[in-house]
Structures are given as structure tokens and as C-alpha cells.
Amino acid sequence: MATTDTEVAMPEDGPYRDRKMTLAAHLLELRKRLMIAAAALVVGMVVAFLITDPVIHLLTQPIALVAERRGDDFAQLNFDSVTAGFDMRMRIAFALGLLMSAPVWLWQIWAFIMPGLTRKEVRYTVGFMATAIPLFFAGCYVGLVIMPHIIELMASFVPEAGAQFYKYDYYYDFVFKLLLVLGVAFVSPVFLVALNLAGIITGKAILKGWRVAVVVATAFAAISTPAADITSMLLLAGILIVLYVLAGLLSMLFDRRKRKRHPEMFVDPEV
């Protein structure tokens, strides 16, 4: 049956193929999902705000180690305005609230777009999320492990007569960006598998690029860790390379399954 201009038809093979929603209904549904996601974020921020003290203590442990090594109090987190303390707590509350409410707002996004997905796409999306989320947190954990070494090493270049005061917003941005970059780096192999499932790249092509992957992983690890901390650099580079190889092997497995189902799509051009 034909649809009107304000009516959106669901895919014939989708999980909700019998439902049809008007444009107005879609907008109402979107507003509902956004309100639920926003409410979850606010609740998460409130809870996170209550636990900012132990979080700040954890983040500033490297500064305490620097002060202990120097044997003085000239290594401190510096709050240079009246509202600086509150501002830092709000930054931490927002980041933690976003993570704590992730199951809710991810589900709202998923519930909104799911009617437009086929059953096969639903399975792929669930698998992608189930793999990407643990890898992201694993990357953040690695960031927390190497962060103290980076700060201690950089502080060693400060002259003994100098004071090492860390401006709160710069320090927070440094830690947050480090954790975010490492989290995304750990998730990148999942994107390679997603590209393979979409038919954009083969597992053989992924593994064939291992030399480039080794160079990129080593360069990224060298940038993310201090030049003198070879152990952290090699550890991070090794983890990234292993994840890359696993993505290639998994993609080759998917290619083999696709070749069995659709042999006509994998004809050797040299034959």
C-alpha cells in the first residue's frame, strides 16, 4: 500500500515491518527518547557529583607523588578563581554522568532507530556495541595506568628551584583527552570489522596492511606515552597491534562464511 508524504514505511524485512508511523509520530517519539536520555544524564550527573572527591583524589595522585619526590609542597593542583573548584566538579560530574547513564541513552538511540533496521543489521549492531563498550573502558583503564608515569616523567624536567602548579582545567583536559583517545584507539579494530561486514574491506586486505598498522600503532604509542617510558610505549603498541590482528582474523572468518553463501561474489579476477 502506498504511503502519504507524512507517512514513513518500515522496511519489509525489519523487526517492525507491520508498523507505519507518521512524521509527527516520529517527532513525538524522538522528543520522548531525548527527554528520557536527558533525564538519565541529569540523574547520573547528580550521583557523580556526590562522588567527585574520590575521583579528584584518584586523578591527583600523580601530583602527590611528584610533591613527595621533590620533598616540598610546590607541586599542587591550582584553582585560580572563585568558582574553579565547582567548575572542576561539574566537569567531572558531566563526564561520569555521561558514562553512568550510557545504558539508558544508548538504549533510547537504539530503540528509536531499531524499527528501521533489518534483523541481520540488529544482530550486527548488538555485537558491535557488546564488543566496543568493553574495549573502550579497557582503553580508559590503560590510560589510568600510564597517566601517572607521564606526569611524573614530565615533572622531572622542572628545575628544583621551580614550582610545579597544575592549572585545574588544563590538568583535567589532559587526563580526560588521554583517556578518551586511548578508549577510541581500542575501539578502532571494531570499526575495521564493521567495514568488513559492510563489504568495504576484506580480512585479507586488513592483514596485508600489518606493516602500516605496526608503524601507526608504534607512533601513536610514542605520542601517547613519554619518550623515556619505553615499557609503557611497547605495552600500548603491542595491545593495539594484537587488536588489529584479531580484527583481521575475525574479518577473514566472516569472509569465509560469505564466500560459502555467495561464491559468485568472490570470483578470482586472475582466473
Sequence stretches where pLDDT stays below 50 over 5 or more residues: 1-18
What can be said about the biggest beta sheet?
A: 2 strands, antiparallel
Sequence of strands across the biggest β-sheet: 1-2
Q: What's the SSE pattern?
A: EEHHHEHHHEHHHH
Compute the CA-based radius of gyration: 24 Å
Which outline best applies?
flat
Oligomer: single chain
Question: Number of helix segments?
Answer: 10
Family: Belongs to the TatC family.
Keywords: Cell membrane, Membrane, Protein transport, Translocation, Transmembrane, Transmembrane helix, Transport
Membrane topology: Multi-pass membrane protein
GO cellular component, one term: TAT protein transport complex
In summary, what is this structure?
72% of the residues lie in helices and 5% in strands. It is mainly alpha-helical and 271 residues long. One of its GO terms (cellular component) is TAT protein transport complex.
List the helices and strands and how they pair.
Blueprint: E1 7-9, E2 20-22, H1 23-50, H2 52-59, H3 61-70, E3 75-78, H4 84-100, H5 102-113, H6 119-155, E4 164-167, H7 168-197, H8 203-208, H9 210-224, H10 230-261
Parallel strand pairs: 3-4
Antiparallel strand pairs: 1-2
Helix pairs in contact: 1-4, 1-5, 3-6, 6-7, 7-10, 9-10
